[in-house]
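Reposting from the mailing list since nobody answered there.

I have sequence plus structure tokens for a pair of proteins and want to know whether others read the tokens the same way I do. The first protein:
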Amino acid sequence: MGKSVTLTYIAILASYLFGGNVANAARCNADNCLRALFPTPSPAAYSSAAAFCATFTTTVNTQTTGFPTRATSACGTAPARYSSACSCRPTVSSTLTSATPTSVTPTPTCLPTRPVNDAVSNGGFECGLAPWVAVDIVNTKHSITSPGDASNFAYQFNQLGPKDPSADMNPAAVYQDLDLVTNVPYNLRFRTFFDKCTQGEGFVGVMINRSPVYTIDACDKGAGAFKDNLVQFTPTSDQTNLRFEFLTNEPDAVIKIDNVSVVPLH
């Protein structure tokens, strides 16, 4: 079970020390001393610091010992530093609540890039999906999942039920349009993952400008781990569509694609 606390910091330009015997005003400095005395969000630390401030600020204080241990490296032994931190301490604006921790797949947050000489952008899916385009059909879905192949993320295809009759002609897919040089040979490399090797697990097909050039099925190289694939091709057009298609008869199949690159041979 976890604890969550919402802390609201109140900015105070000038405030007075608590109590009737206060002779001087303490100025609030939102500095490292404040952050050390009131770490966020720590209910236990807040309670102990608030208790310290309740006694420390009742009079004009000149003590140089007895400060909270966690704050001394930032505040030193100058009473004015502690008076300042106490005068602009945060206030707890909500009660403690309990929550059950859940496992959440991290969301990629970056701009797609491509290595030098690589025509594929975001080939490792570290920046989400774009500029790839996913095509889902009946009983399939796609996602960007973690972990990937020696990286944080990968493209994942899921079969959610029986194969739809239209899948043979129009299967689920993911594709990207590439700018290549006509009549120059290229190496297409990518990694595939199949969750199991069965007769119905199916395959991944590679299409270049809608023409099939390569297939890899679940049992070709073994299941349960990412496997390397290499395809050599020579584009006949500078605008080239690279497309991966997924076809399976297994109602719960999981297939992943990762680390896609298209690099000229020379």
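The second protein, same order (residues first, tokens after):
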Amino acid sequence: MGKSKKQKNNRSSHYPYTRPSKSNSQQVKAASATSQQRQKKLQHTNPTIPFTPNDHILLVGEGDFSFTHSLYTHHSFVTLIATSYDTATQVTDKYPQSTAYIEELESAAREDEDVDISILHGVDATKLGKGGSKGGGGKEVRQGGFDRVVFNFPHVGGLTKDVNRQVRHNQATELLVNFFKAATPLLAPAGTIIVTIFEGEPYSLWNIRDLARHVGLKVGRSFKFQSEAYPGYKHARTLGNIEGGGGWKGEDRDARTYIFEIKDEGPTQAQLTQQKKQKNESSDSDEDD
């Protein structure tokens, strides 16, 4: 996910110029045309960024942390908790480019008192805020009060090639439903849950609107996700980088962002339970788990 650098063409008179093959030339032109089209489209449409720099944001399921890095460097977001499901070692192994992003974010948090950015590893989206539970994120997550809880491109990885089983794993058994249940109590009174997924099958089979409805949420709005709105961001595959880069780029694929709101006015029973638990924990001990 690092930025590619254009190499200068230092041709020498000792080495005659060799015309690239027609197929390579066509590929370069096609790639250039696609890039220009995407840039023009972005210029003519105002991309929707569903949060503001003043929001208290929890990012779940980060891959190489390039999205978090873009929020900080290009959009001036300074109150973030960014988490990965993988351990720190796994993140580095799967996404070597993550090291530079994380180092810059952590350095900014150390050197600037106005920057409140935390990087947490080994956080399970389905166990957010659960005290005494491995993967809950500890006190930083458990204290809640988030204006936005963001999960970009949730996916459990290639557990099976069977589409129906993939749908079930991502729908309910493993991920989305349990994520919604875990994230809702952590929201501030007017907070929202933001999920971005690819369009088309098999993702359309997840029926994400219905899943949210069953756990007390509703779609406030949805819109096309535009990766160009986040300079430096590149989609990270769940299984890690592909050697040689591969031909598949998630940021070039159509995707949609959903903004989920709590159906009923006022705090839900889950939020009330969480608030009571937080009050008891703060009175008993300040020790983190």
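Reply #1 (J.P.):
I read it the same way you do. The radius of gyration is 21 Å.
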